[in-house]
Specification:
Protein-Tyrosine Phosphatase, Chain A; 40% helix; 5 strands; 113 residues
Length: 113
């Protein structure tokens, strides 16, 4: 998991993973436009989040945060990535933390650390 950093128990973020990284997680959420050429595609949710072009970003964030919460409640390991693991990944993690784990202002401070 060298490309991924732990955010909270069983939730990780990072940049575009290698094939070997995929097997570390029960669910990999790919927010980049590129689907990647993964050999194992069974545990990958590809949702190209381009919020600067989309009018329904809130709906998409709601769906993705629900998926993350369900996986974590079942003690599954989830990784989120975009191309660099900063912008879109940070947005989704912030949305998840603010919805399920802490107050929005606390989530912002948590992410800034």
């Amino acid at each position: 998991m060298s490309k991924f950093s732990k955010i909270i128990d069983n939730l990780f973020i990072g940049c575009f993973p290698d094939d070997s990284d995929i097997f570390e997680f029960d669910l990999l959420i790919n927010l980049s436009r590129s689907k990647g050429n993964y050999r194992n595609k069974g545990n990958i949710l590809h949702c190209p989040l381009t919020y600067w072009e989309m009018g329904n970003v809130i709906q998409i964030l709601m769906i993705l945060t629900e998926n993350i919460q369900l996986e974590l409640l079942n003690n599954k390991k989830v990784a989120i990535h975009c191309r660099l693991g900063i912008d879109r990944t940070g947005l989704l993690v912030l949305a998840f933390l603010a919805r399920y784990k802490m107050k929005p202002e606390d989530a912002i401070l948590f992410i800034k650390k």
